[in-house]
Structure formats: structure tokens, C-alpha cells
Amino acid sequence: MRKIWIPISVLLIICFSFLIAPNDPHYVDMSNRLADATLENPLGTDVLGRCVLSRIMYGGLTTIGIVLIAGLIVLFFGIWIGLLISQRDRIIFDSLLNAITAIPPIAYLIIFVSTWGNSLKTMIVAITISLILRVIKLVKSRTEVEMSKAYITCAKACGAGSLRVKYVHILPNIMDDVLAFICLSCADTILAIVGFSFIGIGLGDELVDWGKMVLEAKQLIQVKPILTIFPVLMIFITTVSFYNLGTRIGEKNARN
């Protein structure tokens, strides 16, 4: 149990570190551009004179916030819909889910960006839709496997209805698998968010994110490599934390 709390603690620290950010991440001071580290700006400033440390801290809030919002939506609706459609016409639902989940996440983002433009809403909707379909497919498959087990037969023999069987007996047994899948998907999602921002399909100008920081610093990597190193380091730490969390939840479920 303690091992699970280690990556959770790391993610919470990164997400809420903006509360102790030393400066406004959007404040531009051209007279102080590319400055070295000082007490006021512990990691120096970028090409526009903005505090690098503050932007990294607010970037954690943006990136992890998107992932957590999308993850909670996916967790609730993915489980509910997956349980609801389990044991329905397998040919229709399986064919539909297989066809839709074959579409890469970037395709959803391109569709929504062309409709709504670059924004936080666009990113959350695109990630949620691309992930929720995979969770629905996972829940549906796992539920159908559990339905064939002896404890479900016993529950039905004792008079348990379909909803009770699914939500009381089956759900606790598949929850760890779902959580592990979502955590592992969050690691991929962070890389997707960063990648989209790096190529210009991002969150707009009003939010700070690590992908945008790397994009802005790529021309200065030889002049001031710290502008690239720290955002990349935070991307690595956050991705590994989600991956470790998902792996440990999966291992815990396997031992049980």
C-alpha cells in the first residue's frame, strides 16, 4: 500500500506546487530576459523575462489537471456504460467499439480544434472521448468474463438481480483493472498533451504547459539549456509516476 502512495504523493506535489510559485507565470519583463537564477527567480527567466520556476509549477497544474478531469469523467461514465451494455448483442457493440477505438487520439483533437479552436475545453473533450471508449470496451469485456464465474451463479441463485450482480458483485472485482488501465493511459495522455502543444495544437495562449515551454525554448537550447531541461524533467517524472501507479495497482490486483 505504501508503494502506491509514493507516486500519488509525487503527483499531488506537482499538481499543487503552483500554490507556492514565487511569481506570476505570465508576467513579462523584457529588461530581465534570459536572466540567471536569483532569489526572486530561482531558475532564472525565459526569453520574455518570465519566471521559469513559476511557469513549471503552473504547467504541472495544467497538465495534471487536464488528466485528472478527463480521468474522473472516463472513470464514472466508462464504468457505467460498460456495465450497462455488457452481455448485449456482442456483434453490434464489439464491432462498433473496435471500429471507434481504432481511431487515434490525435484525430479527435484535430476534429475538435477545427470546430472550437485551441483551448482547454478542446483538449479535455478530445482526451475524454478517445479514452472513454477504451474503458467502455475494457469494462464490457471484463464484465462478460466475470459473468461466467461461479460466484455470479451463486448470487443469481440467491435472487440477485442483474443490476445488483453488476454493480455490487462484479464492479469491485474489476475496479483495480480499470484504475490500472486509466493510470497507464494517463501516462500516455501526458505525452500526447505535451506533443500536441509542441507542434502548436495546444491549449491556447492563456494557459502555461510544459509542451509550450519546450517549444519556446528549442531555439535557445545551446544558449540556455535549463529552459528545456526542467520542463522535460517534469514531463518524465509525471509520466513515470502515473506509469508506476498503474503498474502497482495492477500488481496489487494480481496478488489478490
What would you note in describing this structure?
With 256 residues, the protein is an all-alpha fold. The chain has one domain: MetI-like (MetI-like fold), CATH 1.10.3720. The protein is 72% helix and 0% strand. The chain contains nine helices and no strands. The chain is elongated.
Descriptors for this entry?
0% strand; mainly alpha; 9 helices; 256 residues; MetI-like fold
What is the strand and helix layout of this fold?
Layout: H1 2-16, H2 52-85, H3 90-101, H4 105-116, H5 120-147, H6 150-157, H7 162-198, H8 210-217, H9 226-255
Quick overview:
The protein is mostly helical and 256 residues long. 72% of the residues lie in helices and 0% in strands. The two termini are 13 Å apart.
Known CATH architecture: Orthogonal Bundle
On the 0 to 100 scale, the average pLDDT is: 82
Named CATH topology? MetI-like fold
What overall geometry do the principal axes of the alpha carbons give? elongated
CATH H level: which superfamily?
MetI-like
| Number of DSSP strand runs | 0
**Helix-strand category:** mainly alpha
CATH class categorisation:
Mainly Alpha
Rg, Å, rounded: 22 Å
Specify the biggest β-sheet. Answer: none
Strand portion = under 5%
Number of domains: 1
| Distance, first to last CA | 13 Å
Uncertain regions spanning at least 5 consecutive residues? none
Assembly state (oligomeric):
single chain
Number of helices: 9
Please provide the ordered H/E string of secondary-structure elements. HHHHHHHHH
Helix content bin: over 70%
